[in-house]
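ugh ok fine here u go
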Amino acid sequence: MYPHVEVLDFESPLQALQYVDNTCAGDFASTAILLDINMPELNGWQVLEKLQELPSSKKECLTIFMLSSSIDPRDKQKADEHVLISGYIEKPLSREILYKLFGG
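structure:
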């Protein structure tokens, strides 16, 4: 449906961070990240700390949505207040939610 969109799935937050660091730049097409709170190696908040350390040119190409099954209202509030997060999505993720976010 969107031939210009490439979807990548990373099981390792460290690999995802490496991809962003090596790929994203100011002239690179925008990159949307669906970031879970609970992951192995690093949690979503730790990933955000690492992303925050990136140069502005790399951060500018990112649109980050926190994706979680957390029912803790503090997680949603923390996501709403974080400068890098564009929105908080509660699991389960559906096609309808993706269409709503990305103009489908």
